[in-house]
Known about the structure:
CATH architecture of the largest domain: Ribbon
Distance between the termini: 32 Å
Number of helices: 4
Strand content: 25-35%
CATH topology of the largest domain: Umud Fragment, subunit A
CATH class of the largest domain: Mainly Beta
Structural class: alpha+beta
Shape: elongated
Strand order of the largest sheet: 1-2-16-5-6-14-15
Order of helices and strands: HHHEEEEEEEEEEEEEEHEE
CATH superfamily of the largest domain: Umud Fragment, subunit A
Amino acid sequence: xxxxxxxxxxxxxxxxxxxxxxxxxxxxxxxxxxxxxxxxxxxxxxxxxxxxxxxxxxxxxxxxxxxxxxxxxxxxxxxxxxxxxxxxxxxxxxxxxxxxxxxxxxxxxxxxxxxxxxxxxxxxxxxxxxxxxxxxxxxxxxxxxxxxxxxxxxxxxxxxxxxxxxxxxxxxxxxxxxxxxxxxxxxxxxxxxxxxxxxxxxxxxxxxxxxxxxxxxxxxxxxxxxxxxxxxxxxxxxxxxxxxx
Length: 245
């Protein structure tokens, strides 16, 4: 079961705020009410409201932590990475209803972005922005061609690892099954949509399977790893603070 944390946080903030406002402008405090059930409720609301409001503002408009649940973005991101996602990168949106209220920027090719799955908006995915609105994407023999231009691909330092160049931005990808042709095809990115692909090219459920992602479903840009812990193993200290390329 997926819990909508944004909804829970918004409801708690609004409820505590209403109680604080009622106490200030409507209810009359006296010695009896201060020790009553209502008095205790007001006391709790006054204590929690500022904290809840600060957390809601930061989580909705500044950054939000996420945990990487799978290996679809290897080798860039590993299962067990905890990352920060900047919520203001692609516009400020109201919590819960996700309506954009301020334009602050647009995804760039090569960004690592978090988005809500169109078929199940309560589920967040993280992939790399490969195609922009209007692009024609071709993926054959594990190599990308964008608008007729072949994206350079070179051998990396580890087995199955390659270095891909998207415009002026380079990053590592994994190709574990060189003979696979299952995900090949030509894709035209509709206006207002973005084509997303995982860096683990043979093990990623991305826009090759779920189609291009509407701009309305973007959550933010993944920027930093702040912790890595998978199960009961020790944290991988060398990953902490690493910038996501």
